[in-house]
Fold:
Amino acid sequence: MAYVEAVNSDEVKGWVETVTSLGPEEIRGGVRERAEVPLNFTLPDGVKPKKMFLDITVSGAADKWRVFLGEFSVTKVFKPVMQKEYKGELLSKFVFDVTPISHIVVSDPTLRVINESSSSLRLLQSSLFVFYEYPELGELRYSYYVTLEPHKSFWGPLDPQRSGYFYGVFRARPRAEVKLKVGDCLGEFVVEELNEVASDCERAKSYYVEASEEVIPLSFVVGSYVLKLPKIKIEEAEYSDGKVLLKLRNLGDDADDVVVLIYVPGKPLARTSLGKLPSGDEREVELKVEASKGVTGAIARVIWVKGKMTEVAAEKFVSFQAL
Structure:
């Protein structure tokens, strides 16, 4: 693979949050024009980032600029970590380790760029990569890369005993069709100027990217992970005296929250949140429903929440008595 810089490789007992805003957005020179880019994200309660990076790609060059996260000044100088001219434009890549100010970023994740030079800039990509500790969720071994080199294909190994993860921000001029294979899972994407490309797959020993035309993988994170996820089963479901009665059991790992929804197509009838449901626990749920005459039943849907992850765990049709 052509020149690629590894920004960070590590293992985190938790997960990664990626937030990206794609341009291009022009910031004119000579008038101290600014751009404001919200990079909003949330983390599970009580969780702090282990590593946090601000990743910016611009087209053009400046003598002087200022970059802020919230009200904190990240830099006043235009010194890219790499620079390359490609298809008539000058690309510059900037990466800032903002871990020391992560508490500021969490409270105000707004990127502010002020162009103090006479030349215009085009803001192409603004990303935050947040690697956070949350041992109850699982473990991720990852590598985070940046590059300005064009590629038609590239690949890398992953841990075959774990699930595989890939997230990238790609640039194409003007358009490319991209195939991303993580393990046995294939995703197809169209990159027009700029786009995010992502996939994950169980038991993945490698990842492979192939494009119809040259693309620049401006930033990408690859990793192998194991997650401790809940597995909720609806063991019993019945209707009696205007109420839906459910018995749930968690056959997997702890759930931070379990949401139960009773609905007919196009209309919710009842909803409740059960809170934490530890591994192995059983819970009985009773929900009052008001259904129109003639409705013969409804669907009970169970959704678990863990960290930032949610998943529909189970669904079951509940037959109503005649109303």
User: Anything to note?
Assistant: The mean pLDDT is 93.
